Amino acid sequence: MIQWKKSFICAAEMEHAATAHRSHNCTGVLTERRVEWSMSDFEIGKYIGEGKFGKVYLAREKQSGYVVALKVIFKVKLEKYRFHTHLRREIEIQHSLDHPNVLRLFAWFHDDDRVVLVLEYAARGELYKLLRTVRRFSERTAATYVASLAAALAYCHKKQVIHRDIKPENLLLDIEGRLKIADFGWAVRSNAKRHTLCGTIDYLAPEMVEKKAHDHAVDNWTLGILCYEFLYGSPPFEAAEQDDTLRRIIKVDLLFPKTPYVSADAKDLISKLLVKDSSKRLSLDDIMKHPWIALKNQDYPRNGEPTWFFGESI
């Protein structure tokens, strides 16, 4: 049986994070004592989601009134799927990250049956659900999300973190509509090439499909996939059969439908990200300088984050 250590966090750190991210879903003043969390410290609210290993609940820390999301993971499932090493890595990586477009992991604790992650609450939920509702985003909204992702991934890559599973289901929106990267279950901290095949089929880079070594550039590829999906409503290499999808990825069989209309600048950005040679993909810094991003997010370079359009569709 895996041995879990207790987690400690200064409550003032949570208050600082809430202020820094301008979250309006948190109330109360957190004390500056160092605390060891347990389930008894929280008022458990509504069920808000479910994953392979457990469930997510809205919760309020009793003393401060601070609103969080509790991800409750059952140890029996971790043992069954031998996923405890992945969870340890996920905790270590996500807890170390502090960026406006990365969902904060404030703390974690465990009891006999469960491991509980204390997460920033993203009130607007999954970007996936919003995209399915509106079908596709306007170019202005899509560019906002792409800029946010590029900024967050650049931060992660500077810390040697590769996410490896960026997809709409792993992107959340806070109360202001700000995008947050979540679920670091397949993330790895490395400055060397990796060989593990992981992620979701429609978003896999060619080097992963071909079982070659990969690095941070797989995240750049996925950003191109997402940009396409934001504008057209589906991933570019999607096919009825899985093998056909994989073949299209390897060939980079990229097609731009005549409808809906997508600007030449947007297509140019996508084409420069969806390049088979990973060394030739557009860098995250160059994404921020690309005309499509610069024109659609003119406030981004001055303020450090884009203006929010709350999922405006077309």
Automatic annotation (TrEMBL):
<feature type="binding site">
    <location>
        <position position="183"/>
    </location>
    <ligand>
        <name>ATP</name>
    </ligand>
</feature>
<feature type="binding site">
    <location>
        <position position="75"/>
    </location>
    <ligand>
        <name>ATP</name>
    </ligand>
</feature>
<feature type="binding site">
    <location>
        <begin position="120"/>
        <end position="122"/>
    </location>
    <ligand>
        <name>ATP</name>
    </ligand>
</feature>
<keyword id="KW-0547">Nucleotide-binding</keyword>
<dbReference type="Pfam" id="PF00069">
    <property type="entry name" value="Pkinase"/>
</dbReference>
<dbReference type="GO" id="GO:0005524">
    <property type="term" value="F:ATP binding"/>
</dbReference>
<feature type="binding site">
    <location>
        <position position="71"/>
    </location>
    <ligand>
        <name>ATP</name>
    </ligand>
</feature>
<feature type="binding site">
    <location>
        <begin position="169"/>
        <end position="170"/>
    </location>
    <ligand>
        <name>ATP</name>
    </ligand>
</feature>
<feature type="cross-link" description="Glycyl lysine isopeptide (Lys-Gly) (interchain with G-Cter in SUMO2)">
    <location>
        <position position="167"/>
    </location>
</feature>
<dbReference type="GO" id="GO:0004674">
    <property type="term" value="F:protein serine/threonine kinase activity"/>
</dbReference>
<feature type="binding site">
    <location>
        <position position="52"/>
    </location>
    <ligand>
        <name>ATP</name>
    </ligand>
</feature>
<keyword id="KW-0808">Transferase</keyword>
<keyword id="KW-0723">Serine/threonine-protein kinase</keyword>
<keyword id="KW-0067">ATP-binding</keyword>
<dbReference type="InterPro" id="IPR030616">
    <property type="entry name" value="Aur-like"/>
</dbReference>
<dbReference type="InterPro" id="IPR017441">
    <property type="entry name" value="Protein_kinase_ATP_BS"/>
</dbReference>
<dbReference type="InterPro" id="IPR008271">
    <property type="entry name" value="Ser/Thr_kinase_AS"/>
</dbReference>
<protein>
    <recommendedName>
        <fullName>Aurora kinase</fullName>
        <ecNumber>2.7.11.1</ecNumber>
    </recommendedName>
</protein>
<comment type="similarity">
    <text>Belongs to the protein kinase superfamily. Ser/Thr protein kinase family. Aurora subfamily.</text>
</comment>
<feature type="domain" description="Protein kinase">
    <location>
        <begin position="42"/>
        <end position="293"/>
    </location>
</feature>
<feature type="active site" description="Proton acceptor">
    <location>
        <position position="165"/>
    </location>
</feature>
<dbReference type="InterPro" id="IPR000719">
    <property type="entry name" value="Prot_kinase_dom"/>
</dbReference>
<keyword id="KW-0418">Kinase</keyword>
